[in-house]
Amino acid sequence: NIPCQSDNFCQSSFTSNYLCLNGVCRNDSLLKFDATWVFGVTLIILISSIANAGGVGGGAVLSAVYVLVFKFTMSDAIPLANIAIFSGALINFIMIFNKRSREDSNQLYVKYRMVSLFLPLMMSGSIVGVVLNQFLPPLFIILFLTYFLVTKTYDLKLKIRKLELQEEIKRKLETENVGSEMKDYLEKNQDEAKPDKIVDYYFSFKHNKQVDPSTHIVQKDTRQLLRADKWYILKIIAIYVFFIFGLMIRGGRTVKSIIGIASCSFWGWLVFFGIHFGLYLFFKTPQDKHENDAEQRSSTESLLGGESLLIEYDKSNLVKDSFISGVIASTLGLGGGIVLMPILINRRIETETASGLCSVLVLMTSLSATTQFMIAGAFDFKKIIVISMLSITGSYGGYVGIDYLVTKFKKPTLIIWMVFTIYLLSAIILPLIGFENLLTMPNSLSFGSLC
Which of the pair, 379 or 40, is modelled with greater confidence? Predict the structure, then answer.
C-alpha cells in the first residue's frame, strides 16, 4: 500500500507484478486467471494438502510460492501465507476436534491437556523470537535457518526408519497370538535394542505365548469426552485472549497501543515482561487434583494424563521444548508446528498425538499472527477469499487422503512423511531465496533495533 503515481515507480520499487492502482502499489496477480495463476494455485492446494496432513502449517513453502510464482515481496507474502495457514488449520481442526484416537477409542485424537501446557510458553517464546528477528543481522538468520532445516530434515529421515520398524512389529502383534509380556518387552526396548534383536525375540516368543483374554471396555460418548476436557479447552481460549490483549496494550511499530503507551518505553517493556509472566501463570495453573499431584512426579503418564507409556517427559523438558520452539519459529519465520513436530517425535510421543497437538498449536499461533496482520491493514479482502478457498480445499483433501491411508495400511508414519516433505522443500527453497535477498541487502551484517 505504498503511495504511487505510476506503474514504473511500483515496478522499480518492488517487482514487475506491482502496479499503481487507486494511488497505491498493489500486486493483483492472485486475481488474474491465466496460466501462471493455474500453476500457482495448484502449488498452493498441493502444499496446503501435504502440510495440514502432517499437522504443520507449511508457511515457509507457501511464502516461497507467493514470492517465486506471483512475484510478491516477502513482506507481502508472509501475511498471505498466514491467511493460508489459518484457513487450512481451521478446517483441519474442524475435522479432528472431536475425533477419537485410533489407539484408544476412549481418548480424543487431540490431547487438549497437552495443548494447554504447550501453548502458553510457546506463545511466550514467539514474542522473544519476534524481537530477535528484528535485532539479529539478516545473514545470521539465513545461516541459522539453513543449518536448522538441513539438520532437521536429515534427523527426521533417520527417525522415520525407526518408526516404520516399530509399526511393522505392532501390526504383527495385533494379528499374531502373543501375550502381554511380549508387548511390555517391545515397549521398553524398541529404541534401546537393535531392530534385528526385537524381531528375533518376537518370532521366538509368539510360539510360546497366547493372547491375553480381552476385557469388555465401555465405549464413552464423544460429548462425554469433550466435557471431560472442557476446562483445558476454556484455558486454551483464555490464553489466546490474554495474549492478543497484551499485544494490543503494548502496541508496536504499525499498531499503536490501545492505552497510548510507546512500545519501547518503560511501560512498554513492563507490559512485555508482564505478558510473559501471565503466560507462565497459565502454564503453572492446574485444573484438577490429578494435575496438582503430578507436580510430585516426572512421568508423562502423570503429567499429561496417561497419554504415553513410552516416555519420561519431565516438566523441565516440556518447558524447554515449548519455549524454544516458539523462539525458533518466530526468529526464523517458520511455523510453530514444523519446529515442534520433530521434537515431539524424538521425545517418543506417538505420531498421531504429536500431529493432533501441532494441528491445534498451528491454528492458535496462525490466528494470533493473522489477527495482528489484520489490525495492521495488511490484507486485501478479495485476496483473503481466494487464498482461504484454496487452502481449505487443499487441507480438506489432505486430511481425507491421509486419514484413509493411515487407517487402511495402519501406518501413522505416513503423517511424518508429510512433515518430512515440507522440511525438504523448505531446506531447498528458503535458503536460496534468503541468500538471493542478501545479495541486494546492503545491511546484511548490521544489527537491528530491539524496538
Answer: 40
Per residue in 21-39, pLDDT tens?
A: 888 888 888 888 889 899 9
pLDDT at 253: 65
* Cell numbers for 140: 545470521
Does residue 326 have a pLDDT over 90? no
Average pLDDT over residues 418-444: 80
CB atoms < 10 A from the CB of 109, how many?
19
Q: Are 339 and 328 in contact (CB under 8 A)?
A: yes
Give long-range contacts, CB 8 A cutoff, 24+ apart: 192-199. 195/162, 195/165, 198/165, 198/169, 199/169
Mean of pLDDT values over 368-372 = 72
Instruction: Report the C-alpha gap between 272 and 450 in whole angstroms.
Output: 12
Averaged pLDDT for residues 47-63 = 84
Cα gap 114→313, rounded to integer Å: 12
Residue with cell 488449520: 89
- CA–chain centroid gap for 37, Å, is 27
Contacting residues for 172 by C-beta, under 8 A, at least 6 apart: 202
Cell numbers 460429548 label which residue?
A: 223
- Residue pair 414/402 in contact (Cβ under 8 Å)? The answer is yes
User: What is the chain's Cα-based Rg?
Assistant: 24
